[in-house]
Amino acid sequence: MTERRGQRARWTGAALVAPVAAVIFSGTTAWSLHHDPHAVAAQATTTPVVVTPDPSLVAMRATLLKAAAQVATLRGQVASLRTAAKSVGASTSTGSSSGGGSSSGGSAAPIVINIPAPAPAPATHTTTGGS
To answer: N or C: which terminal CB in the chain sees fewer CB atoms within 10 Å?
Structure first.
């Protein structure tokens, strides 16, 4: 009677739980050894999947196609305006080099933009560096 009360109950519980845990461990180990995680499961049915397009997606694609057409049109206009600007620039440079005639405002003046100076840095405390 020197055993504490409940000591025998702990050993019987461990004697029951240990084999159950061993069976679960061995079962999961056996399953993981025979299971290929990269294998693709075969489809039971071969019915074709019919995908119906989403109306909002169709509308968005139509809007995208319209915008792409507008971008192409605007790129063409930009290209034609660049060629026109080059021809105008070439004609004014050749006209001014001939020395004759008056210039019709073709001189390019530099663009000056006044940017304000940045605000001075706030005063800091000399010992801690805090503001």
So the answer is: N
Distance CA(56)–CA(65), nearest Å, equals 14
Cβ proximity of 85 and 99 under 8 Å:
no
Spatial neighbors of 42 by CB under 8 A, at least 6 apart, are none
Q: Are 130 and 124 in contact (CB under 8 A)?
A: yes
The one-character DSSP state at 130 is: -
**CB–CB of 86/72 below 8 Å?**
no
Residues 12-64: pLDDT tens digits?
777 888 889 999 999 999 988 888 777 766 555 567 777 788 888 889 999 99
Q: What is the pTM of this model?
A: 0.32
Length of the chain in terms of residues written = 131
